[in-house]
Write a structure and sequence with these properties.
This protein is of the alpha/beta class. The chain contains 12 helices and 14 strands. Strands 3-2-1-4-5-7 form a 6-stranded parallel sheet. It has a 3-stranded parallel sheet with strand order 6-8-12. The protein binds serine. This is Putative epimerase/dehydratase.
């Protein structure tokens, strides 16, 4: 990666990834793009362009002008928003991905796009979910992710585009909030713990999902993109995870720092049923074996850092 073009650069992952890649590869070598500009560090600290990912021509032209050799395609709707607007989700998630893959093919770029635990469904083995297994998701988001994995592998085999991807679990961060995801509760719970000492969860107790702290997710993207392609048996996409938790696990960990923290429930049937259709825990051994995936943060270490960073951020 030398000349990196990022879509959805002001989203939950993009806003931190952009800043990190600028530190590693040089500010001028990382172009952030999104449908709007804001005053975040990602938007202000280096090259930026407005690009709507459904506009393929604009994407190719902007990437060509920038002399991109890497496309990191992040722009997409998350699971709950996609479920509320399935047709729009198909058009944005699939249309955007096709345009990004075509840009990579036309310019000969390396390519990354994230998949998700959402690429699995009710008939997938729930515990220690294997790398290669049944993928029959029950959500529009999941259908987009499975189709996206297949398309990205297709571009590799058919056109030789160096496509790579990760099946991310819920990502937890104190920088940019997620929007419209099923795993968002695991971010909100920390904000509310600091602000109000209590949280009402829309995901029920006993509902286990994989999670990962953002620094581990960003390091995984860089490690995968820098990995020797000859050693990759899989490409789109690798299971990665750092922990499997339910709301009670997170609350218990928060109570070690905020003893009076209260957790109550008001379950949202839509997001609860999405969560129940996803794995409890992923097997990340293919990522470990093929390119050395490693997560530094477990629940305890992440909680300590989240609460400290959020205290600073929220005053
Ligand atoms: N965090 C995402 C979501 O909940 C999972 O990929 O939609």
């Amino acid at each position: 990666m030398k000349r990196i073009f990022i879509t959805g650069a002001l989203g939950q992952i993009g806003s931190e990834l952009t800043v990190m890649l600028r530190k590693i590869y040089g500010t001028d070598n990382v172009m952030a793009t999104d449908i709007r500009r804001n005053d975040s560090e990602a938007a202000q600290s280096g090259p930026f362009a407005i690009v709507d990912v459904t506009d393929g021509r604009k994407m190719v032209e902007t990437a060509k002008q920038f002399k991109a050799d890497t496309i990191i395609h992040m722009a997409a709707l998350l699971s709950a928003t996609a479920e509320a607007n399935p047709v729009f989700a198909w058009n944005l998630n699939m249309g955007g991905l096709m345009n990004a893959l075509e840009t990579a093919r036309e310019l000969g770029c390396q390519f990354f796009t994230p998949s998700s635990i959402g690429a699995f469904g009710p008939s997938t083995p729930k515990d220690n979910t294997p790398q290669d297994t049944v993928q029959r998701p029950a959500t529009m988001y999941g259908i987009n992710k499975v189709a996206g994995e297949l398309l990205a592998d297709y571009y590799f085999h058919r056109f030789g585009v160096d496509t790579r991807g990760l099946r991310f679990p819920g990502l937890i961060s104190y920088v940019a909030p997620p929007g419209g995801g099923t795993t968002d509760y695991a971010v909100e719970i920390y904000y509310e713990a600091i602000k109000n000492g209590k949280y009402t969860s829309y995901i029920n107790k006993g509902t286990y999902m994989d999670m990962m702290y953002m620094p581990d997710a960003l390091n995984a993207i860089v490690a995968l993109m820098e990995a020797d392609g000859a050693k990759l048996k899989h490409r789109n996409s690798f299971n990665v995870t750092a922990m499997s938790v339910d709301p009670e696990d997170i609350a218990a960990e928060i109570r070690k720092h905020i003893p009076g923290f209260e957790l109550t429930y008001d379950v949202d049937p839509v997001r609860q049923s999405i969560a129940e259709s996803w794995p409890n825990s992923l097997d990340a051994s293919a990522a470990i074996e093929e390119w050395g995936f490693k997560a530094e943060y477990d629940l305890a270490k992440m909680t300590e850092d989240m609460l400290q960073k959020l205290r600073e951020k929220l005053g």
